[in-house]
Design a protein that fits this description.
This protein has about 350 residues and is an alpha/beta fold. It has two domains: about 120 residues, Four Helix Bundle (Hemerythrin (Met), subunit A) (Up-down Bundle), CATH 1.20.120; about 190 residues, 3-Layer(aba) Sandwich (Rossmann fold), CATH 3.40.50.300. It is built from 13 helices and eight strands. The chain has an eight-stranded mixed beta sheet, with helices on both faces. Strand 6, helix 12 and strand 7 form a beta-alpha-beta unit. It is globular and about 65 Å long. The protein binds guanosine-5'-triphosphate and magnesium ion.
Length: about 350
């Protein structure tokens, strides 16, 4: 049995257990809820390219060169990335030949398995936040404007708060009018602390905020920044300065620098990731608005072209719709009806 059948069976079984009111742990319930969010949030992508793939299976009774050409095109339009698709189709060709595959139902299994392997490859990228106990952890959020930095901070803070952590948000976006108030309002809404003022130097704000956070033993501090990338040199200098200030107050921090990218911007988002990777040490990606695109394949392109782990995905606008990335749930959500 292939990988996809296995995860399908596991999720279906858990769902059944919950429906039948059998005893399930809170974690198992959360797993099923998260899985359903992937299923809902990825519906546009699923409708788009999974349906196209199914049509392909009906159209071609024999696996021919034309079949591979069309398959390539479908995967590329799903934003998977040209090179990844080429490698993938080569592998598929090889397996079809070696295993004498003729049956499309079986080929479907192989397609999903191989797509999964693209992400996993020879190493499992951990999607877990890298937090250390009994110290103040600083997470810096970067990314161009409008991608969802501020809302992602609020959503992640909400999740961490529910895990019992003492949280502070710092308004390091001193550039855009209204940014400080926006973060302050989020902090009030979810019930966490806030630090920010109307000074123009983000590093000065971060400095004071972190001093307070350290003195008062906060567990996690999430730092918002302005989204500007008109000038790489300036951005690099500013990020260097912020990093210096952070590590001066709390050594070995920021523990995470999360780059937020908007899935609906496709290849543009990939270019942003490459640029940011050149100028600072990005430890993870928050991929927002996956619910708003039919091109959910971008996760695989990120893996191939940027090779930074996706740590969270945004699958909707609600506070609870930003969830930890999980490749199995993602593949399941993408191929549920395949
Ligand atoms: N559908 C959907 N909308 C999202 C998601 N994440 C963020 N948004 C929306 O995207 C818009 C921009 O979000 P912000 O958090 O303000 O973006 P930002 O990066 O902080 O923007 P600037 O501060 O202007 O640089 C808001 O309307 C959010 O509700 C998501 O996962 N799904
Ligand atoms: Mg913002």
């Amino acid at each position: 049995m292939g990988f996809f059948s296995k995860i399908k069976n596991i999720f279906n079984k858990k769902e059944e257990e919950i429906e039948n009111n059998e005893e399930v742990t809170i974690e198992e319930k959360q797993e099923v809820e998260d899985t359903n969010k992937y299923v809902e949030g990825l519906s546009k992508s699923r409708d788009n390219f999974v349906n196209k793939l199914s049509v392909l299976g009906i159209k071609y009774t024999k696996i021919s060169e034309d079949f591979y050409d069309e398959l390539e095109e479908i995967l590329i339009t799903a934003d998977i990335g040209v090179n990844t698709v080429m490698d993938f189709v080569d592998k598929l060709r090889k397996r079809v030949k070696e295993e004498h595959i003729e049956d499309f139902e079986y080929l479907k299994e192989v397609i999903v398995d191989e797509l999964f392997m693209i992400y996993v490859g020879d190493q499992i990228l951990s999607s877990k936040l890298n937090l250390v106990d009994n110290t103040t952890n600083v997470i810096l959020f970067v990314g161009v404007n409008g991608v969802g930095k501020t809302t992602s901070i609020a959503k992640i803070a909400n999740r961490l708060k529910q895990e019992g952590k003492k949280i502070m948000l710092i308004a390091g976006d001193t550039f855009r009018a209204g940014a400080v108030t926006q973060l302050d309002e989020w902090a009030k809404k979810i019930g966490v602390s806030f630090y920010g003022d109307d000074r123009k130097d983000p590093s000065a704000v971060i400095y004071d905020g972190l001093k307070k956070a350290k003195e008062e033993n906060y567990d996690v501090v999430l730092v918002d920044t302005a989204g500007r990338l008109q000038n790489k040199v300036n951005l690099m200098k500013e990020l260097e300065k912020m990093n210096r200030v952070i590590s001066e107050i709390i050594p070995n921090n920021p523990i995470e620098t999360l780059l937020v990218i908007d899935a609906t911007t496709g290849q543009n988002g990939i270019s942003q990731a490459k640029s940011f990777k050149e100028i600072t040490n990005i430890t993870g990606i928050v991929l927002t608005k996956l619910d708003g695109t039919a091109k959910g394949g971008i996760v695989l392109a990120i893996k191939e072209l940027v090779d930074i782990p996706v740590k969270f995905v945004g699958l909707g606008e609600k506070e609870t719709d930003l969830i930890p990335f999980d490749i199995e749930k993602y593949i399941y959500g993408l191929f549920k009806e395949f």
